Request: fold
Amino acid sequence: MKDTPLSNCERDFLLKAIEEKKRLDGRQTYDYRKMKITFGTDYGCCFVDLGKTRVMAQVSCELVAPKESRPNEGIMFFNIELSPMASPAFEQGRQSELSVKLNRQLERCLRNSKCIDTESLCVVSGEKVWQIRVDVHLLNHDGNLMDAASIAAITALCHFRRPDVGIQGDEVTVYSPEERDPIPLSIYHMPISVSFSFFQQGTYLLVDPCEREERVMDGLLMIAMNKHREICSIQSSGGIMLLKEQVMRCSKIASVKVSEITELLNKALVNDKKARKEGGRCGFAESLPQERITALKMEETSVEMTDATERAKDIVQKADARPQKVPSPVVPVPGVGQVGQGLQNTWGLEEDEDDEEEAEECDSGEEQEEAVTKMEEERHEKEASGEV
Amino acid sequence: MMEVCGSSSVTLREFGCEQSLLSRPDGSASFSQGDTSVLAAAYGPAEVKVSKEIYDRATLEVLIQPKVGLPSVRERSQEQCVRETCEASLLLSLHPRSSLTLILQLIHNDGSILSCFLNAACMALMDAGLPMSCLFCGVTCAINADGQIITDPTAVQEKESRAVMTFAIDSTKRRVMMSSTKGSFSVHELQQCIAFYRDSVSRRYSKTL
Reply:
């Protein structure tokens, strides 16, 4: 399926609005959209809503043989799935450029930053280690997939619990969740990516671009940072030239945003832990609102009215004069009506008799017409006087 | 979660549905039966690849995405079941040379997954406004070792049963549109199950409509 192309009018409108520091949804330049983090039924399943962008991450684990170069380290595997659900442009199975880019960025953000202690994932050195697999499914593409994916991935990793393992001599026992409580992964820090989009060759900057803004942007700067203000990964794409000051400013903005997001993330984790402890049912099914109609629910959009100079009254006054009175239908025969032009035959092809007959009819028709028009005029005048 | 094994009453787990969740697809719905949840999205009618176009009908494509890993043969067989049911109820001849795409994402599997796929698919197609001749709904039932029939089984119950059957039933004439079975059972048990389905299906329709 092909995605609808962006029209030139839309593109010009968006760029012009950005030049006037206005965004489509009324946000400020550095504002993030509303973020919501929820968890699924089993450990390691997390949903992130960034405005309308929706992403689901699932973490799972498996015992495998380790890599030969690193015999006592666990294996991390990341996969971002661009589901055709997210956008009509995504195709199943096709390894598109965007998919490669997102996967690579997520790997650099989480794997190369060494946020997970892989040595704690080792069970038997050289033989059995845990392979932690993170699958991120994109459910709805409304811009800024990278940020949503990184938040979902790290939250799911924090939420995940792996089965407990007992080693007695040569025997290794893997306990099921019923036998022994599963243990969380050991996570050193939480890298979160923040995306900046640039317009007009780096003159204008927007944080957290929505899908429309992404389509008209010149370039994208992605900074992955943790709350200790350490940059884990930085990537600039689109071929824009950025000044050093711009990059420094972006990293300062990123540190503020990352600390806010980390706080929200921790709060969500704490709430979920509390809910699970109380034994309540949790999961996607529970998060559905009960007995309420929420389909097609939209938040109130604020509309800016400060620049509105023209008012409806002015437009009506300037409008054209009232349209010409149209003669009301003539009824020559019951059940047949004639309106507008064509009442009088102008072809001159008919015989004289018909002409006379028609002339008579038309005369009477015209008389009637005049009478009716007069009545209408009177009515209009009355209405006009009534209004004023 | 409440299911009762017994021939007198038919109980389904608490089910919930929400439509128009996602902004990009033409129609989307999420359906949950107890803890089993599925998210469905429908696109269409849209442009179709020349290799896949049919001259007098729309081409329906169903994609089932598992939570972990890539789609495998199991997903393909489930896709086929859902696709055949949808093709039987959609009025495909109204949109020749177009494509209708239905994507089903598994959120959580706690048993009765194929019937959850069917229900979510129907809700998403309705939300997309695609013309259909009838609505359909899916119900799974399992026959356990004692011979009792359990409707809407959980994953644990499915594992312990000797046969699991899923039927898709249409809304207008309550006839069976699709059946998918696993395990061994007798003809008599099959008839019993279909009778049960009719019961539980009428319950389901009364709740959704």
